[in-house]
Write a structure and sequence with these properties.
Elements lengths: L3 H11 L3 H16 L6 E6 L2 E6 L6 H6 L7 H7 L5 E5 L5 H10 L4 E5 L3 H13 L4 E5 L2 E2 L4 E8 L30 E9 L1 H7 L7 E6 L5 H6 L2 H4 L8 E6 L10 H10 L4 E3 L4 E2 L8 E6 L1
Parallel strand pairs: 3-4, 3-9, 4-5, 6-8, 9-10
Antiparallel strand pairs: 1-2, 7-8, 10-13, 11-12, 11-13
């Protein structure tokens, strides 16, 4: 069964690449009709080993069969040739960090940020299993300034194993974001830094960064507040793949249009990541992925 959100993404994807869509459907069918291992399992992205704890959530099966958000793969492949740098802000269990490491290779770098201990350990394990690759696992969040904040965490629970609406990737630093499902969350204190400070501390070459992925569940504005220098970088714009959320009925409204307008004001062109055409800011769903370059 395909979720409504997935069906919408695939429908838009079909407009730009119907042949790749056929491959996506084939891979999805393999996942659907295959049994996944239990407990600890290892899958591979070319030479990269990626260890999974299959007990965390049903979503681990997608990670094992490489069927998670397949419509984004062509952006990674386009932006991350060998030797480039990938930045994963909101890395969660490290799926995209593992995939990106297989693209940038041993001469590239992966900088992953994940503050939640249960999920950070999978990224740390990714780095340990692949010593030939430069994978930097950072147990910290990115935001507007250096501080400590309370984070609502959706922890792995047996009674939430099959829930895709509020899953282990839904944890958020945005105040009130998960108030409607408080029974599924627990609060932890996490450290936050501005990404600009990290760039300076690690002397990252912005021209080597092939892609910055941001998936922070409503905390997008704060992340961009902390990367002013990256957004203002002269010359080539550093490519950004960002999940934006829109729900203006909330007590603290979410409005993806504000993110789009902010990036455009910094000189970016914002595309819908599913079909790589200009994003329609007047028809945003709750969750959209934008590719900005």
């Amino acid at each position: 069964m395909i979720a409504m959100k997935t069906a919408r993404f695939l429908g838009k994807y079909a407009l730009s690449d119907p042949f790749k869509l056929a491959d996506i459907v084939r891979r999805r069918a393999i996942e659907q009709f295959s049994s996944a291992p239990s407990r600890i399992a290892i899958t591979h992205f070319n030479g990269v080993q990626y260890e999974l704890d299959m007990s965390l959530h049903r979503m681990m099966k997608k990670y094992f069969f490489h069927t998670h958000e397949m419509f984004l793969e062509r952006i990674f492949e386009r932006c991350l040739p060998p030797g480039t740098i990938f930045v994963d802000i909101g890395a969660n269990c490290g799926y995209w960090s593992a995939y990106a490491a297989s693209l940038v290779g041993p001469t590239g770098e992966v900088h992953a940020f994940e503050p939640v201990p249960q999920y950070f350990r999978l990224i740390r394990r990714l780095a340990q299993l692949n010593p030939a690759y430069r994978i930097l696992a950072n147990q910290i969040a990115c935001g507007a300034r250096s501080e400590r904040l309370s984070m609502a965490v959706v922890a792995p629970r047996a009674n939430n194993f099959d829930n895709y609406d509020t899953n282990i990737g839904s944890s958020s630093l945005a105040a009130g974001f998960l108030d409607h499902v408080r029974e599924l969350t627990e609060a932890i204190a996490v450290s936050v830094i501005p990404f600009d400070a990290y760039v300076r501390e690690h002397n990252l070459d912005l021209d080597r960064i092939g892609l910055i992925k941001i998936d922070v569940e409503g905390f997008e504005s704060a992340v961009f507040d902390g990367m002013y220098e990256v957004l203002a970088h002269d010359g080539r714009k550093v490519p950004i793949l960002c999940e934006i959320l829109t729900d203006r009925t909330r007590a603290a409204p979410l409005d993806g249009r504000i993110i789009i307008e902010r990036l455009e004001a910094s000189g970016y062109r914002c595309l819908d990541a599913t079909h790589l055409r200009p994003i329609n800011r007047n028809a945003l769903g709750f969750e959209e992925n934008i590719f900005c370059c």
